[in-house]
Write the structure tokens for this entry.
Amino acid sequence: MTQKLQDKQLDLAIALTEGLVAGINKGQDWYKIVGTYVDSPLCWAISTGKQSKHSSIDSLHKSNVGISRLGSGSHIMAYVLADQQGWHSEEPFTFNVLNNFKAMRDAVNDGSSDVFMWETFTTKPYHDSGEVMRIGQITPPWPAFMFAAHTDLLKQPETIQSALQAIQKATELFMQQKDDESIQRVMDILDYTEEDVRSWFKIVHYAPDHLSISQRALEVTTSTLLKAKVIEQPGNPTEDLCDKQVARFIE
């Protein structure tokens, strides 16, 4: 997504908060964060193999975690888990880079990884089928998705504000129609069951003001990325990550 911003294939993007924060801190200076799309956190399922010795989160300290790539959400969530469990050793896990979701599922069953973390509803069909075993979940302390704009577009703050306000109206309509059109639309696009879609609607929450950004959320995200060694010591998160001409900052 950020590569498409760099190539100017996109002017405005919606992407995972941790990815946007990491990118800017690693020198991707062609975009800034300009607003919040989904302010509820993404829920990640914690999964092991069907014959795993790990049946609860408590036993995972120092285990081997299967991840898609270093710096990915599947990698960063391990450090969120370590923080929440109070595992403060320098290296709470070892990691097995596996590139894709199927390889991560295979690895916990062949024993080359102990556990992996992946978005709950994407993983649920494999829990339901018994391919992998769910032992818990983890939610990071930051909003799931934020808006980022190419720096060229930042010269037109009114354009960004108009676009985000239009998206705001669309998300409000989407939620208002959830019992009529929206549930069926998600089922059709993602091939989820009605039960799963209804469960998803209970936990997802769109930001009531897409032009707002939580300064605290950026600070917590940055702190976790530092612990995961995804980034080096950054400057001021608010000043470096966001554009104040467009967004409004909240605590």
About this structure: Strands lie at 12-16, 31-38, 44-49, 64-67, 94-97, 115-119, 132-138, 145-150, 212-214, 248-250. The domain at 44-138 is CATH 3.40.190.10 (D-Maltodextrin-Binding Protein; domain 2). The first strand starts at residue 12 and ends at 16. The radius of gyration is 19 Å.
